[in-house]
Fold:
Amino acid sequence: MPSGFRKDGTKLGFQKGCISLFKGKHHTKKAKEKMKKAKQGKYFSSNNPNWKGGRRINSKGYVWIKVPKGTPGAYKIKSLIDYMPEHRYVMSKHLNRPLNRNEVVHHIDEDRINNKLSNLLLLSISEHIKLHSIMKHQSDQKS
Structure:
């Protein structure tokens, strides 16, 4: 039997010309408020059984942390709402200001998980590129 059909041969779903009972219907304001109250805080953040402390490691090895809503530099992408790279958060807290887009936080020991302030260095993009070219040149000479 092809997909989309029942065992008796009748087609699944709505037939052409069949009107859905819910088409064009919306929840009332009262119903929306009731659902909102029931949902509030239920499985949010630390109440969720899958909560991992608000820390993620992305595919490039950087640690991302959940930050308070409205923190400058936090991402607004759907999967990363109110998350930002931990090394940028640590540096901005130390400087007591948000970082500019042209500022790069460099990991001195090149360990992307080590976000201690003593391991972080604030550079401009051009300074960061120069630093990495010098480091690459030095490693080529050692080999």
Remarks:
- The helical segments are 29-39, 86-95, 125-142.
- The radius of gyration is 26 Å.
- The chain has a mean pLDDT of 82.
- The first strand starts at residue 55 and ends at 57.
